[in-house]
Amino acid sequence: MTEVDPGTWTTVADAVAAVCMLLGAYFTLAAGVGLVRFPSLLARMHTVTKPQVLGLVLLLAALALRVRSWSAVAMLVLVVVFQLATSPVAAHMVGRAGFRTGKVDDAELELNELRETPAGLRLDEPGIDEPGVDEPGVDEPGSAETRRT
Amino acid sequence: MLAAVIASAVLVAAAAMLALVRVERGPSMLDRAVALDALTMTLVGAIAVEAIWSRRTETIPILVALSMVGFVSSVTLSRFAAREPTGESQGREPEDVAAQARTSDVSRAETRRAGHDDDLAPTDDEGTEGEVRG
């Protein structure tokens, strides 16, 4: 790489930034379309967790290519790290709450690892709760204490 | 560059509108929480597009802050998600609300009417104390 005009690299970086920006906006739109069109809670959660994050990462990469300053790039890396760290947490919490409040259809799942201990049946499992807790008079759907893990 | 920025802005704005549609339509509070999460991330993308166009770096701390706190809403909402009545997406009918208020005061068996059994059964058991813990 010898004797290249600095303006060339600026142009190349801007072009790559434009491509990344268009791709990121496209993925963001795809996530929005999936959010409206998908039929169930878990499918909508999928669109928000995966294509949305990918589109956001592409948009931030485009911004990093466009501003070309190391302090800005450091903050953008921080944004990406936060997104990658927090979106699985949010998806996990939403999915668990959806499962426990009966918003997940069993027939929709390929593999239901929580079938053995569904939220409402904890009282029937003597090994999970303390033996003294499950009195026969308690309602079957369970008060909040029986569902605590 | 201008054409790419305009196209990206249109796409991101359309994504935000679709997320708003899901916020309005979502059958449960968890759907709305997910859609609000998507709306926050779309807002981050919109600010990024604006910064790409103007080459400003002053708005990047906004992106950091939004990405830090954006997931708190959905986590909080799912933390306190309760069992909701099935089959209704918007607000409840006034008579349903009144019936539910009465069942919380008086004993359930008396005020439960035949037509509203299916609507009210989940809320009777899980109404305010049925939050998901842990």
Topology diagram in text:
The complex is a heterodimer of chains A (149) and B (134).
Chain A: H1 6-37, H2 41-49, H3 51-67, H4 70-100
Chain B: H1 2-25, H2 29-54, H3 60-69, H4 72-79, H5 94-105, H6 108-111, H7 117-126
Summarize the entry for a quick read:
Chain A is mainly α and 149 residues long.
What does this structure look like?
With 149 residues, chain A is an all-alpha fold. Chain A contains four helices and no strands. In chain A, helix 3 runs antiparallel to helix 4. Chain B is 70% helix and 0% strand. Mean pLDDT of chain B is 77; it is low at 108-112 and 120-134. Chain B starts with a helix and ends in an 8-residue tail after the last helix. The radius of gyration of chain B is 21 Å and the shape is elongated. In chain B, helix 1 packs antiparallel against helix 2 (29-54) and helix 2 runs antiparallel to helix 3 (60-69). Chain B folds into two domains: 2-83, no CATH class; 94-120. Chain B has helices at 2-25, 29-54, 60-69, 72-79, 94-105, 108-111, 117-126. Chain B contains seven helices and no strands.
Q: Helix and strand string of chain B, N-terminal first?
A: HHHHHHH
Q: Give the largest interface.
A: A-B, 61 and 59 residues
Q: What average pLDDT do the residues of chain A reach?
A: 79
Biggest sheet character of chain B: none
Mean pLDDT of chain B: 77
Strand content of chain B: under 5%
Oligomeric description of these chains? heterodimer
For the secondary structure, the number of strands of chain A is 0
Shape, per Cα inertia axes of chain A:
elongated
Radius of gyration of chain B: 21 Å
Q: How many individual helices of chain B?
A: 7
Helix content of chain A: 55-70%
Overall 3D shape of chain B:
elongated
Regions of chain B with pLDDT < 50 over 5+ consecutive residues? Answer: 108-112, 120-134
Number of helices of chain A: 4
- Summing up helix and strand content along with how strands pair, one would put the structural category of chain A as mainly alpha
SSE string of chain A, helix = H, strand = E?
Answer: HHHH
Rg of chain A from C-alpha positions?
24 Å
